[in-house]
Amino acid sequence: MTLIVRELRRGDPSDAATFARIRRQALPFVLFTPESVAYDLEQAHPDAHYQPLLAEEDGEAIGTAQVGLVHDSPEPGQGNVNIYVHPEKKGRGAGSLLARAAEERLAALGATRLLSWVLDAPANRAFAEKRGYRASRSARFLRLDLANGTLPSLQPPPSGVELRTGADFADDPRPLFVLDAETLLDEPSDLDREFTDYEAWLTETWHHPLLSHELTSVALVDGRPAAFSAARTDGGTRYGTVMTGTGRAFRGRGLAKLAKNHSLHRARAAGFTEAFTGNDADNGPMLAINTWFGYQVCATEVRYVRDLG
């Protein structure tokens, strides 16, 4: 048996398809497509030094890693190491080889702190702890059966509130950038991030191939974007909300729930059968909203942190 780790090749559709396939097997609650994998690699911010890795056993790809620096954090030296091995190929050393390659790469780039999301299972946690990582916080993956479940009924917007889609901002999405940047600051996390670069946001968020402008919902108050629910789709039957939030001046009025409900109804009408989302375990308000919609927890992950130096 020969086990190697190599970089995902730029401009190679088969590599991107392989990476997406393994990720869907290992992490079925997150949307990946060959197009999104290729886009993330080609369009990554230069300061992220982003590089996906593949582990191959006798020429067969069995494991993946996402490796890069957190370029939009005000604290330099933060590195991401997210490793997932095909569930039928575990225990063959692919995870260890990927972790070593990723850690060496980030150390060479000057990373001083490594962060890794790990599915909450004893073997996974033991793997991280053996490598010197410590548990930090947890998050939940949630799933909603759009085909057979019952969504809350649609309610008309209150006076002064208008519901629009992301497509309505095609000519000028900057107001959504401003709202997204504000809500990000209040998202529970052990990693500070800031959206200050509009052009980078356009590339990484607005023009991302998974983002559906038509299914993204925006609630406007007196013409100003006040809340939104950003939707992604995989080109098939799976839909996910990757960020739902409300501007600080408009909270407590149910606007995020209103926007997300309209997005979910449109997704179901468009033929999507599964809805996914994820929440930090400390994000009580959003967890309550998703419970109200009927989402159920389908998996839990734990953030692990390792300091270098």
Major beta sheet summary: 12 strands, mixed
Rounded mean pLDDT is: 96
Principal-axes geometry comes out as globular
Overall SS class:
alpha+beta
| Biggest β-sheet: strands ordered side by side in the sheet | 1-2-3-4-5-12-6-11-10-9-8-7
Total of DSSP H or I helical runs spanning 4+ residues: 8
The CATH class label of the largest domain is Alpha Beta
Please give the domain count. 2
State the total count of DSSP E strands: 12
> Strand-residue fraction?
25-35%
Spell out the helices and strands N to C: EHHEEEHEHEEHHEEEHEHE
> What are the low-pLDDT stretches, counting only 5+ consecutive residues below 50?
none
CATH architecture of the largest domain: 3-Layer(aba) Sandwich
In the CATH hierarchy, the third-tier topology of the largest domain is known as Aminopeptidase
Tell me the radius of gyration: 20 Å
The CATH superfamily of the largest domain bears the name: Gcn5-related N-acetyltransferase (GNAT)
Kindly, what is the distance between the CA atoms of the first and last residues, rounded to a whole number of angstroms?
34 Å
Spell out the blueprint of helices and strands.
Layout: E1 3-7, H1 13-26, H2 34-43, E2 51-57, E3 60-69, E4 78-85, H3 94-108, E5 113-119, H4 122-130, E6 134-145, E7 161-165, H5 174-185, H6 198-206, E8 211-221, E9 224-233, E10 238-246, H7 255-269, E11 274-280, H8 284-293, E12 296-307
Helix pairs in contact: 1-2
